[in-house]
Write a structure and sequence with these properties.
The chain is of the alpha/beta class. It is built from 4 helices and 7 strands. Helix 1 packs parallel to helix 2. The longest helix has 16 residues, at 171-186. It is globular and about 45 Å long. The relative contact order is 0.14.
């Protein structure tokens, strides 16, 4: 796992540690010191800790005018024991929501496991985002985790999508494509 880096092709467009409105503003990274781990497996030092012991993130892009961000995740999403959705919301997405972000694209292809619980935090998140005409999309969650997510009926609050080629898009184009897909379903 230590070799899996966050997607870096948009770094010339955005760096969360340089963004004064980011919760990771001012952070410095080491390429050599591995301090974060998912269980006994160290992860690449470019990933950010937002308070979960098993799930880490990287804000790949944020646009406050267009009100969207792209966040890549790695690790185990565990609501049953750790209540990771609460931690994700309170320490990351609520912070960004207060900065004007209402559209969240979560890249979940490196989420190794998902352990669900109740839907309360998802429902609250959905209601808050919907009131602001926003949405939350979880992109490319592995099949087993997707099945678990659906078992708890969380797809009613967080849109599950598969888009294997998301890396070929620029951030604005990815946002527009996803927004168009969601809008066309609602029409």
């Amino acid at each position: 796992m230590h070799t899996i880096e966050p997607f870096f092709n948009w770094r010339y467009l955005y760096e969360s540690e340089e963004d004064e409105r980011s919760p990771f503003y001012g952070r410095t990274y080491s390429e050599f010191e591995f301090s974060n781990a998912v269980y006994n497996y160290y992860i690449h030092p470019q990933w950010d800790n937002f308070g979960s012991s098993t799930l880490f993130c990287k804000i790949l892009y944020a646009d406050y005018e267009m009100q969207f961000c792209v966040i890549e995740l790695i690790g185990e999403w565990n609501d049953a024991i750790e209540n990771d959705v609460m931690t994700l919301r309170y320490n990351l997405t609520d912070f960004l929501f207060d900065q004007g972000i209402t559209h969240f694209i979560l890249i979940g292809e490196n989420v190794l496991n998902f352990h669900g619980s109740d839907a309360e935090y998802y429902q609250q998140w959905y209601e808050e985002i919907s009131e602001a005409d926003g949405w939350v999309v979880l992109l490319n969650l592995p099949q087993a985790s997707r099945d678990e997510f659906k078992k708890y009926k969380l797809q009613y609050y967080v849109e599950l999508m598969q888009m294997e080629d998301w890396r070929v898009y620029k951030p604005h184009h990815l946002f527009q494509k996803i927004d168009q897909m969601i809008t066309s379903r609602l029409d």
